[in-house]
Amino acid sequence: xxxxxxxxxIGSLTISxxxxxxxxxxxxxQNDVKVTGKITDGSGAPLAGVVVVVKDGKSNNGAVSNTQGxxxxxxxxxxxxxxxxxxxxxxxxxxGASNVVNVTMTEDAQSLDEVVVVGYGTQKxxxxxxxxxxxxxxxxxxxxxxxxxxxxxxxxAGLNITTGNEAPGSNQTLLIRGQNSxxxxxxxxxxxxxxxxxxxxxxxxxxIIENMSxxxxxxAVAIYGSRGxxxxxxxxxxxxxxxxxHVTYKTKLAIAEPMQRIETMGPNEFIRLKQDMGRLKNxxxxxxxxxxxxxxxxxxxxxxxxxxxxxxxxxxxxxxxxTMDHQLSFQGGxxxxxxxxxxxxxxxxxxxxxxxxxxxxxxxxINQKMNDWLSVGLTTQFVNRETGGATPNLEHAIKQSPYxxxxxxxxxxxxxxxxxxxxxxxxxxxxxxxxxxxxxxMANGFLDLKLPVKGLSxxxxxxxxxxxxxxxxxxxRNTVTGKKVDxxxxxxxxxxxxxxxxxxxxxxxxxxxxxxxxxxxxxxxxAQYTAASQSGEGFVNDDSSFYRMDGAExxxxxxxxxxxxxxxxxxxxxxYGFNSKYLLTLTGRADSFSAFAENRAPVKAI
Length: 606
Hints:
Blueprint: H1 2-11, E1 13-19, E2 32-40, E3 51-54, E4 62-64, E5 70-76, E6 80-85, E7 88-94, E8 103-104, E9 115-118, E10 121-124, E11 132-135, H2 137-140, E12 159-162, E13 173-176, E14 189-192, E15 195-196, E16 209-215, H3 219-224, E17 232-237, E18 243-256, H4 267-282, H5 299-307, H6 314-317, E19 321-333, E20 337-348, E21 356-369, E22 374-388, H7 394-398, E23 433-450, E24 456-475, H8 480-485, E25 488-511, E26 514-537, E27 554-578, E28 582-593, E29 604-605
Parallel strand pairs: 1-18, 2-8, 14-17
Antiparallel strand pairs: 2-5, 3-4, 3-6, 6-7, 9-10, 11-16, 12-13, 14-15, 16-17, 18-19, 19-20, 20-21, 21-22, 22-23, 23-24, 24-25, 25-26, 26-27, 27-28, 28-29
């Protein structure tokens, strides 16, 4: 019996290994050709998010059309391209003499019966009256990246994703149809498994996301209140499915390096520039223009010039690294119970010196059908994020002289390579002891009831989210900053807790040619934040790092903060359809918020 169970488990074990080179040159086969084109819908409008692959599967290359409907892909000659998009019929095109392939997609009538996730429920696509864009699991898996938002780039018209910080694990800025406010936040509302989510999207493992929907029009405000004024992104995680116990292991290994360097002057160009500046600005001539005798370069630069020593400062700032991403998942179930669990680990050192990032995700979901009228479920997720290391200043690196002094005779970083106080050594503090630990725990439980009245159901859902962040930095005597003050320590901690309780009453029923879908909501939400920080200078030695803040003797600073807010909300939505041709949606919402001014009415949206 035990041996048969063992064979059964091994028989269902699936191992998927994916090796890729990230941000490195790729060498296509000699018979590969580059194919470009534009994809439009039946009305001639550009169509974004269309997946383009080779039909026979001989090539692993794939592409997705951008917001202008344009795509570009390298494939073997004489291939057959397959164009797929949610809501449209698949198109196949055999490559001929031309490498420009324009395609017009036609709507798929059957896809209009597909059920998509909307605010507080689901609807058939053909019954939608508001602006909704859906990104399926297949589309999300087309892009191999460990950041969820990178997989959305170019997938949804009107959704702009920008990155202000290229450090691994950084969150991007999301804008749906531009900026709506000059002073307030323009971030869209994120709904994760039906519960508002305020954490970082970089914490989520893209491999556990089933699909994403983006609400872009005014109905998002009516459904979610003022918080939905910047648009709403609905994220649905994967669930277990009926079938045998199934194990999947995925790994992605990559070598990463900068795609390109910033072009700067070489040593000879730099000297010529200094000489030209001396002639034009100070009327220098003769020996005055000599780098060693004259004054066109600083005293520090003359030391390296005399020795013939030059520095490419970007060699110190950038590096080539090896990254890896592992995921082990389990899923299965029967008619009453379905479950899924996964563990993933990401290690991305980053191409900038010291931009280290490690992320561990633990995810579990179970759904249980108790009987014909009661179902319950629970989803939990834990994220541990480790970063740390003082990164160099790229601006200071590209502005340094090729003859600037990198390190002194003791091996310490030279504070001012060009003797300019406003251009210190970009590596001056990279030896600092820095640790940043972030933890994110989420739990989401629900209860579904089918009430005695036909078409009437009730759902109660409770979500809890706890996030903490610890940032500690110690500038020791082996750093320029710490050497001046006999060590400097900084330590900050913050904790955020929020919970949401939502109760939804639904009535969905047909009366002849009439269809009525009613949704009523009562919701409560609370969030609170606490933070404390301290810093100090002057330590006896560097042994205790930032763990013994009481050892500071100078410039001791302590601060703390706290805030708390509450929401109480009510919402209703009525969808009416006649003969599957005429549709009407009426939505209203009222919010009470603890931060509203006294004697001011809550926000109402209809």
